[in-house]
Amino acid sequence: MGADNRLDLFQCPVGVLIGDVEREKFLADQVSQPGIVLTLLQKLEEQRDCLVRFADQREAIGQLLTAERSLKPEGGGFLETATQPVDDLVARGASEARCAAELARECEVVFLCLPSSVEVEAIVYAADGLKAGARPGLVVVDSTTADPDVTRRIAADLSTVEVEMIDAPLGRTPKEAEEGKLSTYVGGNVDVIRRVRPLLECYADTIVETGAIGSGTTCKLVNNFISIGTSAVIAEAIATAAKLGVDLQKLYDVVSAGGANSAMFQMVMPWVLEGDDGKLKGPIRIAAKDLRFYARMAQNAQATAFIAQACSQTYELARILGHSERYMPVLPGILAELNGAPIRALDEAP
Q: If DSSP codes are grouped into helix, strand and coil, which group holds residue 227?
């Protein structure tokens, strides 16, 4: 498709259905582009949907929700536990829709950013879901860190009703999200990607086209296994060092000066030394989910997953022990308590 088709997107309605966005923030006015109509679907505590459209068309796809937001399955629907960002948008000229089907009817592009493939399937296939309201030509951009097999299956099914789907999971931290400088790894039809690229550029300054549908999520899961797996290794090493009576400040100095140093180590250690978990605002439940998806993907490909399984079990244990909503840097403290050599109180403020 040519440049003219790409520019047409700046006059089309764009839907955003976001549940748990992990560590990303989406504030609607952060990455404004003239001419985009932003729509948002959210299900609130009273089980109603909210469709947000800005009449002045000045707002854009951007950082809309904080990492604390959560969209949780309940009673066949969803409960949204934090409504302030939606309320703010409504106060700025938003209108409401009854369901995801209406969102699909109103929009030409719908972005999904949900906790997992489970929620994606639910919102696509519900009686009042996206597929029920989809019209030919709709593009679904799924930014969920999902199961690639499920993503491919949904995409194939939506193609039967002339709906295009690409996967475009997100990378980087809340800081980059606030600046509109996330990264995204995009899989799918190259013409569709080219068509929606101006929208991706509203919130990402690094866009990697990875291949066929599902390849973006595959790359994201491999990336997350490397990063989250590293955090599990670091956590176990620190917990063991604490058990052995090592001065953890001295350990920090040793590791920081050598080849074992890493960005992950530098994000974990502020909690170990000062009780500050804010350098990596990724909940343990999300880390556990990503490792679980990676291990399943590897096993389905008949690839080795020994280390992935060990890291996954570490995070699953932390989740089962009741630490689902704690951020990943607290993992060394959880393991240290299991070792009988606590580093600091888990609830201690920095």
A: helix
